[in-house]
From TrEMBL, chain A:
Annotated protein name in UniProt: Allophanate hydrolase subunit 2
Pfam families, sorted: CT_A_B
Residues covered by the Carboxyltransferase domain: 41-317
Keywords, comma-separated and alphabetical: ATP-binding, Hydrolase, Nucleotide-binding
PANTHER family membership: 5-OXOPROLINASE SUBUNIT C
UniProt lineage: Bacteria, Thermotogati, Deinococcota, Deinococci, Deinococcales
Keyword ATP-binding carried by entry: yes
Keyword match Ion transport: no
A single GO molecular function term of this UniProt record: ATP binding
TrEMBL record, chain B:
GO molecular function: ATP binding; hydrolase activity
Domain Carboxyltransferase: 10-198
Gene3D superfamilies cross-referenced by the UniProt entry: Cyclophilin-like (2.40.100.10)
Domain of life: Bacteria
Keywords: ATP-binding, Hydrolase, Nucleotide-binding
This protein's name: Allophanate hydrolase subunit 1
Organism the protein comes from: Deinococcus grandis
Length: 333, 210
């Protein structure tokens, strides 16, 4: 019951596929994502792009709102045939990408002509990238967001990862020329293979846990998805079966009874009953989206003042970059 | 520190740099109040038992939010009547753990079902999975120990007991609670205007169906 694979040679002008784009190859796990939703109080996970810096800069490059929906590419990317001209940008891990066989530069706005095929291959470092299309991708909107929730099966394209034959559409916006724009490399989310994540302790952080969690490197296990990244090495975990379920926050480090820590990503459940001794600081949350199985990481405790300063510095730099890219749109340069 | 203290005074605890835990017996009332009148700086409020986690717009918003939340709490009074809404859940009893639970409660099957249907339950908070509600108010004999090893698959619509809680699994998920029945009621349906039909403070009653 699979849809016939459209071919690049098939004439599409005038047909129902004369707009948008068709997915020819789906990639490992390609989903529609945006900034996510805010209905945890209904038990609904936040969702949204796992590397929000990549999402914001990719959208800014094509003149979209910062929270606009695009494609989140994981490990191996899709091949997409465009039935209409578009302006796209790919930001995040250094994926190999081509447009009709020619290398597609990352961190740039790139015009795509009708009939061209965009192929996103693999990446040697990091895990994810965000492909923005000027006008923002359409998708099933649930609680104010088009983000795909894979576990609950809603949002995006039928609540699932892309499949060959899927048809992607976006909203028309006045055409915009691709301008030369340079995004400072230090704004980009680092992509390993070693990560240092800055963390803050919670009420669950005991002296023993501080010693065992902060003193050594951990390895990202193959169990790393949009819900969480499990680490390979275990520590002695406190056990408390009567512990009540409490709300989760982004970047929480959960310690299940087997002692192998889990760093929570955007699709994590809204509440959890395991001890959560550490939280990754806001400025380092985008790095969680680039944790790749086999990468190593260390956790470094900082003060709340350090965390605030890091967030302010990152936000200032990001907003300045977004503002400059938008100014260029307004002036049409 | 000579700060005033007492069982009803809120305590604030940072959870990372962009979230605050507010512990207060008025957590449910505070959640309702923040929904009706949002506070600047608070992006989202997530309830749990006697706890409200506030996700902040920016890490730096915390100090100001703490003061405004304390001020808001001072205007609230306990609302023992809950939301005033009542949700009746029709249940076909007979899950795989029903007999075990009845025996654990020291009752026969019919008496156990009658006791469960007589219980005045209330939605404490939602979480775990979309539409899942933690229902409080189980009388002591009906509180069941969780399974030692969770089932990998609990069917959608399963009515379950775990620790002090009762609940209904809205979709097939893993689960460690004791299964005593099924309901056809759907607690997460995106085709409805309100996909989730209950909210904290709602009174809940199980009703036995053949």
């Amino acid at each position: 019951m699979t849809a016939p694979l459209p071919r690049a040679s098939r004439p599409v002008a005038g047909g129902p596929l004369a707009t948008g784009a068709t997915v020819l190859r789906a990639g490992v796990q390609t989903t529609v994502q945006d900034a996510g939703r805010r209905v945890r109080a209904l038990g609904v996970p936040a969702g949204g792009a796992a590397d929000p810096v990549a999402r914001r800069l990719a959208n800014a490059l094509v003149g979209n709102a910062p929270d606009a929906a695009g494609l989140e590419v994981t490990l191996g990317g899709p091949t997409v045939l465009f039935h209409e001209a578009a302006l796209v940008s790919l930001c995040g891990a250094p994926f190999d990408a081509t447009l009709d066989g020619a290398p597609l530069p990352l961190w740039r706005a790139v015009p795509v002509q009708t009939g061209q095929t965009l192929t996103v291959g693999g990446t040697a470092r990091g895990l994810r990238a965000f492909l923005a299309v000027r006008g923002a991708l359409h998708g099933h909107e649930v609680f104010g967001s088009r983000a795909t929730d894979l576990r609950a099966g809603f949002g995006g394209v039928q609540g699932r990862a892309l499949r060959p034959g899927d048809h992607l559409t976006w909203s028309p916006l006045p055409a915009q020329a691709a301008r030369r724009a340079f995004i400072a490399p230090d704004l980009r989310t680092p992509t390993g293979p070693h990560h240092e994540l800055r963390v803050l302790g919670t009420g669950d952080l005991t002296a023993d846990l501080r010693d065992s969690l902060l003193a050594r490197p951990f390895t990202v296990s193959p169990q790393a998805d949009r819900m969480g990244a499990r680490l390979t090495e275990s520590v002695a975990a406190p056990r408390d079966p009567t512990r009540p379920s409490v709300p989760n926050v982004p970047g929480l480090l959960q310690l299940p009874p087997d002692g192998r820590p889990i760093l929570l990503l955007p699709d994590a459940g809204t509440h959890g009953g395991y001890p959560t001794p550490l939280v990754v600081i806001t400025a380092d949350l985008p790095r969680l989206g680039q944790l790749r199985p086999g990468d190593t990481l260390t956790l470094r405790e900082v003060t709340r003042e350090d965390a605030h300063a890091a967030h302010l510095a990152q936000e200032r730099a990001l907003r300045q970059a977004e503002w400059m890219l938008r100014q260029a749109v307004v002036s049409g340069k | 520190m000579p700060a005033p203290s007492g069982p009803d005074l809120p305590t604030f605890e940072w959870l990372g740099d962009a979230a605050l835990n507010v512990r207060t017996p008025l957590a449910r009332e505070l959640y309702a109040s923040l929904r009706a009148h949002p506070l600047p700086g608070v992006q989202e409020a997530v309830p749990a038992l006697d706890l409200l986690t506030l996700l902040l717009d920016a890490p730096t918003a915390g100090e100001a939010v703490q003061e405004t939340v304390a001020a808001r709490l001072a205007t609230l009074t306990p609302a023992p009547g809950g939301s005033g809404r009542r949700v009746v859940v029709p249940v076909t009893f007979g899950g795989p753990d029903l007999d075990w639970c009845a025996a654990h409660a020291g009752l026969d099957r019919a008496a156990f079902v009658a006791a469960l249907c007589a219980a005045q339950l209330e939605v404490a908070f939602l979480g775990f999975t979309p539409g899942f509600a933690f229902l409080t108010g189980l009388p002591e004999p009906l509180r069941m120990p969780r399974l030692d090893a969770p089932r990998e698959r609990v069917p959608a619509g399963s009515v379950a007991l775990g620790g002090p809680w009762a609940g209904v699994y809205p979709r097939e998920t893993p689960g460690g609670w004791r299964l005593v029945g099924r309901t056809a009621m759907n607690f997460f349906d995106l085709s409805r205007a309100a996909p989730v039909p209950w909210q904290p403070g709602d009174r809940v009653q199980f009703e036995a169906r053949a």
